[in-house]
Write a sequence for this structure.
């Protein structure tokens, strides 16, 4: 018995191995298909990508056919007439050898992309002759065809997948297209559909002899689905026009739904320049512009201390905590003294209650109210956490969960923040009073500002901002139809709103009234600094304006941030009021204001940062703009034309063939 | 003449299978590393050439040498393992190598032969009766000493190999409950990883209860059953602990892949998935020598070392795989046959050790490659790339062939 055990185990184990190998090699066919098998060729059928429409059904993004020339290097004949071949494809022989080498390095046996994204005309000549060239075949794909020349930051673009994406997601093969940035990225799986695959059996001479196992494993392509965005194309376009020669962002939200009506960043570019063969050249150009940063979506990413608009929340929290009421009065002596003889400056003077505190934007009032809020509790840490959770219930200090792939958290300080800054304690309400007026440790992005205004307009709730309105036949994500209620009681909103209303009637935005539309708004400025020649210098303030309208039954909430625009009412305010008028009335009555804004150029201000850079040449005004006629060509400051920063306009290939 | 006697008496069947396996191994290494530029198959050819003088030295040492100096060889081997902690070279996180210039040597590959000699020497003492607990402990100690030195390198693969000696000890009279315990341990281990610990204990309880009430009257010992349940619970929880706290993430991942807990074909499951694809694409007769697309495409990592069998499967198909498995099985059975006909207990035990060691390598390696065993770094004897491995197995085998050839002189 003892002698038999080991031989028995050996025989059983060997049989086990043989059975498993038999299963793998003979019974289970799926491994044969998965293998990059020479005997079976995979032919992909790429479905058309879904179209993108705006909220009113206007077509924004469609498709155009494109062709990739594929190559299997070891099947290419040695006696290929390279000169003729290159002439057909309009490439140089050097280019041919370079591409061939690259394909060989990838794999001599597997197909790789030889030349990508030819349009119909470029491909036509080659198509007739392709049979002559063994080892080459074409793969039809669909590329984007942009019906509009604005909204580049919203759409994002499509590009070939890179190695790490292929490694992460087995769906993609080398050469496949994938959405990058914007809705192309966030709705990639809906827009792209599912590619189909045909398995074709080849014999040992590499000839195709029909479909593998009667097409048992073939799959049919599933077309991509069309989507409607919440964007109002007209408003979006108008916003981009107003931002000409300025840098900054505009975010407009419909308060009742959280739908993003416009998401403007400036400078921007024509989305059409990132299509086809000129894509990589133009993308590099945009990418390398580290100063104007045309690929940086300021509406979502620009994080600044919001300044005065934050006083709205300071007031609401103070009311909720019961430390002030509408009648509470603070005396302003062009500011007020607090802890240890420090003084917070204010432009106002006299007694201030909540109402005139808001429309005069009185630092004294909100500084005092904030200190009362913090002093209500014995422990300032506890108090800050209570204040912080009130403020965060407006969606601040967090990624809001909207459906665009980029964003910033912003910052709302908590007791932890101050424990880190002051490890030995000793901080009090007076130490952190600058939070009251939206400075200190508070940071917000334009979309957070817009969402804050939408929440105020709704008197205490918001829906997560989103850009998707409709997916063909499907409901949008439930998280966009879930109400978020703030920790502030509804009864505290009307007095604040009435103060915001009087910003237009009596306060800082008096000059921006629109006849017949009740707008509630708030100006703001954000200090900012930049390194210029190695020195940290204070630049002109960023101009901020937040608003919603109409006062009763609000239809639009908006935040405008203009880099280095100065006081909030000078640039950001007019843009906000024009956007509101455009959206609610569909036409502009104050044409003089419109012309003034259009022609307002901050180029000379930006020149201090090192001149306008490459992308400035790409930055586009919508070409069919009726407003273009009204634009007076801005005087170009000397720094812009300085040779080192100059970029030749001709360097940019904006031709959209086809 | 000694020369004559070795030539006449050596078991040429084993030698023939050995040469065939080494040759096939090199052809597959050649195919899988043809496109790489670091001279893999050239180096392996040099390693193979070096085995020829090695074999001659092993065969022409006096037959009594191995038995006489078994303890000293074992001692030196243990020292070489211990020395790794001081002078070892770390490659890919494992401190398993001595480096002499660009040349590296892995002492654990030679320790297998040394341990086999030591165990054979110990058991060949006529006084030894493995029914005695003391003897069992001593025999197990010989087996576990190298394991203790190898585990922290860390090299769980090499350490696992030593469990094969249990089969040898069983042959020499170790009570069968050891084998049962080992078997149940493995079952419990796998069950614990697949299921929750409490579920496994509940199952053990049910099984013990059934044995208790349905079994023979003599088995109805409530205390024994209780102790067993406690032991099982302890084991189950320690497995759970070891798995979560001692194993490295990549070891855990490998078990999880195998147990179907994780499906991640691009990440950690990549190796096994790719090797299954490569083998699966082979079909009946394979794609032909040098024609493997997976092999050439470099899809299977470590293909010339632990995954060399994928090349066999892909290029030589089911037929080739079957030939290799039959060659191994034939060699193993032949060694056991030879061992049983030895006249001394020493050479019989040693022969068994050789068979057991080669078997566990063969089985674990191929089972891993075809996805029925977790990914553990165990080479395929005579096939996998690497000098230390090839020489270690060659020495292991030829010491036995020498003993076998010498048996006529042992009266």
């Amino acid at each position: 018995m003892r002698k038999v055990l080991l031989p028995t185990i050996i025989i059983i184990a060997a049989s086990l191995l043989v059975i498993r190998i038999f299963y793998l090699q003979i019974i289970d066919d799926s491994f044969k298909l998965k293998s990059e098998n020479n005997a079976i060729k995979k032919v992909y059928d790429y479905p058309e990508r879904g179209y993108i429409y705006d909220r009113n059904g206007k077509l924004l993004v469609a498709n155009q056919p494109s062709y990739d020339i594929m190559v299997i290097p070891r099947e290419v004949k040695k006696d290929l007439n390279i000169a003729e071949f290159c002439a057909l494809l309009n490439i140089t022989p050097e280019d041919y050898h370079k591409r061939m080498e690259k394909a060989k390095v990838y794999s001599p046996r597997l197909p790789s992309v030889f030349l990508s994204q030819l349009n119909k005309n470029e491909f036509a000549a080659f198509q007739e002759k392709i049979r002559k060239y063994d080892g080459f075949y074409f793969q039809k794909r669909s590329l984007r065809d942009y019906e509009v020349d604005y909204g580049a930051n919203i759409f994002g673009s499509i590009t070939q997948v890179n190695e790490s994406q292929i490694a992460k997601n087995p769906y993609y093969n080398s050469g496949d297209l994938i959405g990058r940035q914007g809705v192309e990225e966030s709705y990639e799986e809906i827009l792209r559909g599912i590619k189909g695959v045909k398995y074709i059996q080849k014999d040992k001479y590499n000839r195709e002899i029909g479909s593998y196992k009667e097409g048992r494993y073939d799959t049919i392509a599933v077309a991509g689905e069309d989507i409607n965005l919440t964007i109002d194309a007209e408003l979006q376009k108008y916003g981009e026009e107003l931002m000409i020669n300025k840098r900054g962002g505009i975010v407009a939200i419909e308060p009742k739904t959280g739908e993003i009506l416009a998401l403007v960043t400036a400078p921007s570019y024509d989305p059409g320049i990132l299509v086809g063969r000129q894509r990589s050249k133009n993308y590099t150009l945009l990418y390398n512009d580290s100063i104007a940063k045309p690929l940086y979506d300021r509406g979502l990413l620009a994080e600044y201390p919001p300044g005065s608009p934050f006083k709205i929340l300071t007031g609401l929290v103070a009311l909720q905590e019961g430390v002030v009421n509408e009648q509470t009065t603070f005396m302003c002596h062009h500011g007020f003294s607090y802890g240890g003889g420090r003084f917070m400056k204010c432009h106002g003077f006299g007694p201030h209650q909540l109402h005139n505190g808001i429309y005069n934007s009185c630092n004294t009032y909100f500084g005092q109210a904030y200190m009362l809020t913090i002093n209500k509790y014995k422990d300032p840490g506890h108090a800050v956490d209570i204040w912080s959770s009130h403020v965060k219930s407006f969606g601040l200090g967090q990624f809001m969960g909207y459906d665009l792939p980029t964003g910033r958290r912003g910052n709302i300080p908590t007791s932890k923040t101050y424990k880190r800054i002051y490890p030995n304690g000793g901080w009090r309400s007076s130490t952190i009073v600058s939070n009251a007026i939206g400075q200190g440790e508070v940071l917000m992005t334009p979309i957070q500002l817009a969402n804050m205004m939408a929440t105020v307009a709704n008197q205490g709730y918001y829906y997560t901002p989103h850009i998707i309105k409709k997916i063909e036949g499907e409901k949008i994500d439930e998280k966009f139809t879930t109400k978020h209620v703030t920790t502030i009681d509804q009864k505290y909103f009307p007095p604040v709103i009435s103060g915001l209303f009087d910003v237009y009637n009596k306060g800082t935005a008096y000059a921006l009234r629109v006849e017949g539309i009740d707008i509630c708004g708030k100006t703001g400025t954000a200090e900012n600094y930049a390194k210029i020649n190695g020195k940290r210098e204070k630049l002109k303030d960023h101009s901020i304006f937040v608003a919603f309208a109409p006062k009763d039954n609000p239809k639009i909430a908006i935040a405008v941030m203009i880099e280095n625009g100065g006081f909030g009412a000078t640039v950001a305010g007019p843009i906000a009021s024009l956007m509101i008028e455009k959206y609610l009335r569909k036409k502009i009555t104050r044409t003089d204001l419109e012309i003034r804004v259009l022609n307002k150029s901050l180029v000379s201000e930006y020149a201090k940062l090192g001149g306008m850079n490459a992308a400035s040449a790409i930055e586009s005004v919508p070409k069919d703009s009726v407003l273009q006629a009204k634009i007076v060509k801005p005087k170009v400051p000397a720094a812009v034309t300085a040779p080192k920063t100059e970029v030749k306009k001709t360097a940019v290939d904006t031709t959209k063939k086809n | 003449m000694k020369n004559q006697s070795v030539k006449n008496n050596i078991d040429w069947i084993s030698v023939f299978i050995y040469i065939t396996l080494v040759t096939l191994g090199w052809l597959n290494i050649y195919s899988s590393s043809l496109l790489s530029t670091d001279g893999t198959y050239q180096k392996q050819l040099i390693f193979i050439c070096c085995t020829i003088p090695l074999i001659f030295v092993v065969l022409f040492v006096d037959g009594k040498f191995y038995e006489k100096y078994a303890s000293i060889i074992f001692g030196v081997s243990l020292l070489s393992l211990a020395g790794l902690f001081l002078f070892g070279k770390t490659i890919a996180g494992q401190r398993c190598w001595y480096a002499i210039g660009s040349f590296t040597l892995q002492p654990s590959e030679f320790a297998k032969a040394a341990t086999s000699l030591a165990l054979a020497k110990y058991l060949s003492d006529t006084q030894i009766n493995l029914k005695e607990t003391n003897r069992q402990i001593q025999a197990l100690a010989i087996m576990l000493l190298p394991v203790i030195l190898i585990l922290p390198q860390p090299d769980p693969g090499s350490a696992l190999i030593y469990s094969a000696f249990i089969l040898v000890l069983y042959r020499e009279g170790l009570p069968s409950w050891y084998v049962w315990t080992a078997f149940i341990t493995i079952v419990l281990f796998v069950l614990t990883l697949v299921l929750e610990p409490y579920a496994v204990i509940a199952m053990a309880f049910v099984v013990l209860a059934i044995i208790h009430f349905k079994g023979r009257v003599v088995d109805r010992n409530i205390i024994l059953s209780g102790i067993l349940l406690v032991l099982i619970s302890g084991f189950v929880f320690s497995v759970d602990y070891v798995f979560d706290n001692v194993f490295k993430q990549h070891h855990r991942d490998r078990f999880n892949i195998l147990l179907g807990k994780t499906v991640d074909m691009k990440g950690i499951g990549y190796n096994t998935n790719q090797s299954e694809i490569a083998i699966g694409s082979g079909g009946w007769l394979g794609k032909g020598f040098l024609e493997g697309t997976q092999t050439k495409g470099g899809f299977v990592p470590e293909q010339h070392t632990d995954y060399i069998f994928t090349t066999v499967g892909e290029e030589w198909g089911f037929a080739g795989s079957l030939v290799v498995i039959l060659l191994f099985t034939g060699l193993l059975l032949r060694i056991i046959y030879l061992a049983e006909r030895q006249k001394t207990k020493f050479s019989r035990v040693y022969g068994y050790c050789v068979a057991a060691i080669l078997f566990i390598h063969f089985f674990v390696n191929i089972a891993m490659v075809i996805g029925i065993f977790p990914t553990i770094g165990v080479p395929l004897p005579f096939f996998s790339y690497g000098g230390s491995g090839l020489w270690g197995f060659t020495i292991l085998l030829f010491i036995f062939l020498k003993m076998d050839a010498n048996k006529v002189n042992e009266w």
In short: Residues 5-27 of chain A form the longest helix (23 residues). Chain A has 23 helices and 20 strands. Confidence is low (pLDDT under 50) at residues 611-618, 633-658 of chain A.
